[in-house]
# Entry
Amino acid sequence: MEHKIVFATSNAGKMREIREILKDLGAEILSMKEAGVDIDIVEDGDTFAANALIKAKAVWEKTGGIVLADDSGLVIDALNGEPGVYSARYMGEKTSYEIKNWNLIHRLDGVPEKKRTARFVCVIAAVLPDGRTLTAEGTMEGVIAHEPAGAGGFATRRSSDLAGVRKDIGGDHHG
# Structure
C-alpha cells in the first residue's frame, strides 16, 4: 500500500519544492487541491508554529492521514520582530515583495550593520493519522541588506562560515 502525505498548500511552486525534498520517502505527496480540499484557512496564530498547526489541523479534519503544513517569515530585531508571523500579510497580501523589501530597508535607514540582525524562520507542522501533532523549527540568521537582493521574497544577507565572506540570499522564501 502506497502512503500518502497531504501538504496544506495550494502554492504550485511550494509543492514542487516539497516533492523534491520528500522524494525519497516513497510516499505520494498531494497538495490540498489534489486531496480534494478547497477551504480558506485563517492563519490567526501568534507564532509560526501556531499558524502551521492551524493549517495542518484544518486539512487533516477533511482528509485524515498524514498532513504537513508550514509557516515562515522574516523576524527583524531592530523592528521588534516585524514583520514576523505577519510576513505574508505585511503591507497587504497583494503588495509585491519588492515594495515590502524597500519599505523594510527604508525603515532601517541609519541603523548600523551590527544592529540589522534578522532571521528567516520556518516551522513545519505534522498531524499524524491518530491526531497527534509534531512541529519542527529552523532558522537562518543574517542581517538586513541595504538594498534588495534576489527576487520573489524578503532579501537578507547571511554570514558565511567561509572566511567571513558574506553571501546574498534571495529567492522564493515566503509562505
Remarks:
- Helices lie at 12-21, 48-63, 97-107.
- The first helix runs from residue 12 to 21.
- Strands lie at 3-7, 27-31, 66-76, 117-127, 133-143, 156-159, 166-169.
